[in-house]
Amino acid sequence: MQLSANVLTLLPEYVLCLTGIIVMLAEPLIKPGSSRKPLGWLALLGTLGSVAATVYQLSIVRSIGTLHAFSGTVQADRFSIFFHLVIACVVIVTLLSSLDYFEGYASHAGEYFALVLFGATGMMLMTSSTELLMVFIGLEISSIATYIMAGFRKGQAASAEAAIKYFLLGSFATAFFLYGIALTFGATGTTSIASIASGLAASQTPLLAIVAIAMIVIGIGFKVSAAPFHVWTPDVYQGAPSPVVGLMSTAPKAAAFAVLLRILFGGYPVEHAKWSALLWIIAALSMTIGNLGALLQRDVKRMLAYSSIAHAGYLLAAFTALPQDGISAAAFYTAAYSAMNVGAFAVLTQILGFREHARNRDDFAGMAQRHPALAALMAFFLLSMIGIPFTAGFFAKFYVFSGAMHAGYVWLTVIGLINSGVACFYYLRFIAAMYSVRETSAQEVHPVRVAWPAGLSLGLVAAAVLVLGILPGSALRLAQHASVQPTQQETAAPAVLRAKTKIVR
Amino acid sequence: MALALFIIFGVLCVAGALNLLFQRHPINSALSLVVVMMALAVIYWTLGAEFLAAAQVIVYSGAIMVLFTFVIMLLNAGEEERTTGSKAAYFVGIPGVAGIIALLTYIFLHEKAALGYARLGGSLDTATSNISEISRVLFTDLLLPFEVTSILILVAILGAVVLARREQ
Q1: Which H or E element spans position A68?
Q2: pLDDT per residue over B86-118, tens digit each?
Q3: How many CB pairs under 8 A join A and B?
Q4: Range(s) of the domain holding residue B63
Q5: Is residue B159 part of a domain?
């Protein structure tokens, strides 16, 4: 049976979206007050289905090449498949670790599972779209879903603050992104990423196009919390529920980086020198501000928020590299970062629980005695964030910095390496706190019971971080194949014709 | 003629937007938003986009503003209180806005010659129908974004229900 291209290209998105709708419709059928866990399992099943659909897409793409659908607004290639897999894995881990999170606390856990699926649909649409308007709609779906989930600890003032702050600043960022799209259309006469490059060559207003890139970079910079657009990050991560932070600090960022890769390397390759200079500044600022900020934090979630700003900086450093190194380095870093960050927050979810009793570094003192397994996993993820060999973080940093070196950005590499050294300090300080011996009074210790789904998710993430650190080969190969895609111009011809006819008419 | 209309309604639009910011009562802000929407509609119309102008009036100035007013009335929102806690708006916001406006002004003045040729509304003056042009693009090339917007709205509805519902 051969499915039509319109079905095949968006198969993972259809599966996720349909499961989301089923979860949403099934929610009112469950008695109020009873457990919402079955809906979580249903959501998990849907995500596994979308992974299967993505793998099926990969086999098709391997045999007949890139799939195009809906008048060239979306395409399925190795690039989109790579990011689809990253997003789906993050969603699986999040769902598994949050199955028991809302038990007994929130009556709206059913909607949570639906929102996770809808958000993931939006993120996947972003990675597979080749049309800026489609990117915009996908970005909005994923953003609105995460704004709402950030406010899911409804009784808590911090959670409401997080949701409002995230919503206001996120909408502000969206306006920049939208203005960038409008200016791109003004300068090149098209919003299709593939035909922007040729539109740019014929453009009478090249300066306008550069402002358009800057606006798009600012818009995406907000979403990936790169400095100087990072101010919302610590407050939002502190207030939002831990599993949601695990999701929103990884999957939407992966999607946003994918979009940025496609737009910059696919749409604006001509202006590489200009936008890589812009990203040089943003990367250096993010690394420095992120790491210095993290040094000052006592709250664990805030520390990880600043650390994620720093990681966005390392990742953006990959954008300054030449296309052949840069795209695969950035893709690999995204996968590695997603694995270790979602892992760290999955551990935090288990330790903190819904009420979040212990949040400061001091509260974690002696954690290794009380919960040796959780402490060991946390230490492992933090070591990976430092970039210790045999973890995913090592190869991720290695590829990024060697890519930046190849492109001749020695100073950026130096700044990055110094920052990695600074980062060691606060990660190790936290690990040392966990492994320090401290007498704890009985009422201070909150019982932590790790349910088996959460344990399974932690095991899966740890395995992923380890495998990416020991055998990066297969993921890197997929990333390298992926890197060929966004610069390919095979869709350019019909799209350009379309754009031209529009202008002539 | 077009230039005179543009100047009048452009100024009106900016003035309405500023008034929206400076008014303290939400209902006054909402009403100045109506002014902005209507002025924008006139500008669309002078550019030759009649359909967009009509949609702007019906959807934004009509439906959405009515909703805004309803919400403000139902919430019984009083005059806002200004906090003096954060000076970020003055030290970062105002220079930032000034910088962006200066940059855009420079760009548009610099590209004046090229933009003059583009004749934004020019192609729409002729016999081509505005509505058929928009619907052709919307239902062929951009069909997917148009359809996927429904998921966006679904997510927003779901969120409104979740956040507004009383905890049991």
Answers
A1: strand A67-69
A2: 777 778 888 888 998 999 899 888 887 777 654
A3: 101
A4: 1-78+109-123
A5: yes
